[in-house]
């Protein structure tokens, strides 16, 4: 992808679906056509009027380009901001394209990284015949203690270490999700009582809500920061009022979490890492 002495052209357009309107943009940098999405902040507040936000351009590892703009930014202003950063955008897309786009499966050996509430912890597998098998966080490490030595084969290690870590995540997820649900319920004034929830591992969903209002949450979500967890829980609580992704649903979600688009974008960006087993 060339990035030297090339002209820039850009435009922004909207895509109207059945339930929502999404802003998309496209610019041409030399021979390359780059698509990007526009995420606007929530409606104006007194603080926002006094201190206007800038238009922020970000290139994600999956090569998505996102322009975060104030709610009242004009298309010309966004166009200009993207055009000024065109060279920088193309350079970062090229850099990410060169990197491996796959995440290697976990081997569950000492030195690997495990996530918990948005922080990285180094896995340490220990063998101690005098202690019970357990998993504990300690000083930046996730320690897994086994009573018996492992064989040299990777299958034996995965078979013994992975279930212990999975069980630990399940346990932590129930505690954290219960805590976050209790904190968030006052925002969801349409919810009567405390919804029941189950923790269940899913490959393609962070959560779901049944017609009866019962929640199902993915234990892998506990690897993410609390703000990401809050977004998923609030998203599912909104489904108690609106069962589909209608305009009313998105307005309701925006009302109780104005920055949900930015949070969702960050969660999407880390999904492959959090879901990696």
3D architecture notes:
This protein is of the alpha/beta class. It has seven helices and twelve strands. Strands 1-2-3-5-4 form a five-stranded mixed beta sheet, with helices on one face. Helix 4 (about 155-185) packs across helix 5 (about 225-240). It is flat, with a radius of gyration of 22 Å. It starts with 7 loop residues before the first strand and ends with a helix.
Descriptive labels:
single chain, 277 residues, 5-stranded mixed beta sheet, 4-stranded mixed beta sheet, 7 helices, 12 strands, flat, disordered N terminus
End-to-end C-alpha gap: 34 Å
Backbone structural class:
alpha/beta
Q: What's the overall geometry?
A: flat
Strand content: 15-25%
Give the gist of this structure.
The protein has 277 residues and is an alpha/beta fold. The chain contains 7 helices and 12 strands.
Q: Secondary-structure map with pairings?
A:
Blueprint: E1 8-16, E2 21-29, E3 32-40, H1 46-50, E4 56-59, E5 65-69, H2 75-84, H3 86-98, E6 113-116, E7 119-127, E8 134-138, E9 141-146, H4 154-184, E10 197-199, E11 207-209, E12 215-217, H5 226-241, H6 247-256, H7 260-275
Parallel strand pairs: 3-5, 7-9, 10-12
Antiparallel strand pairs: 1-2, 2-3, 4-5, 6-7, 8-9, 11-12
Helix pairs in contact: 4-5, 5-6
């Amino acid at each position: 992808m060339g990035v030297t002495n090339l002209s820039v052209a850009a435009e922004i357009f909207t895509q109207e679906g059945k339930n929502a309107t999404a802003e998309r943009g496209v610019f041409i940098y030399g021979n390359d056509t780059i698509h990007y999405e526009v995420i606007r902040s929530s409606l104006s507040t007194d603080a926002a009027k006094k201190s206007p936000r800038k238009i922020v351009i970000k290139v994600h590892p999956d090569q998505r380009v996102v322009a975060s703009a104030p709610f009242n930014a004009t298309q010309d202003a966004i166009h200009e901001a993207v055009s000024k950063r065109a060279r920088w955008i193309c350079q970062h897309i090229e850099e990410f394209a060169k990197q491996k786009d796959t995440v290697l499966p976990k081997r569950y050996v000492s030195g690997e990284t495990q996530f918990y509430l948005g922080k990285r912890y180094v896995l340490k597998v220990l063998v101690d015949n005098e202690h019970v098998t357990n998993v504990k966080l300690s000083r930046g490490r996730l320690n897994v203690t086994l009573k018996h030595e492992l064989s040299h084969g990777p299958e034996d290690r995965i078979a013994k270490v992975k279930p212990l870590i999975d069980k630990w995540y399940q346990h932590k997820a129930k505690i954290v999700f219960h805590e976050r649900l209790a904190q968030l319920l006052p925002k969801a004034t349409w919810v009567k009582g405390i919804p029941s929830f189950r923790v269940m591992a899913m490959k393609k969903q962070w959560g779901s809500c049944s017609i009866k209002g019962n929640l199902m949450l993915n234990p892998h979500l506990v690897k993410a920061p609390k703000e990401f967890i809050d977004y998923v829980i609030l998203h599912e609580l909104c489904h108690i009022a609106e069962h589909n992704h209608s305009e009313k649903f998105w307005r309701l979600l925006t009302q109780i979490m104005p920055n949900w688009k930015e949070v969702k974008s960050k969660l999407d960006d880390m999904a492959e890492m959090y879901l990696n087993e």
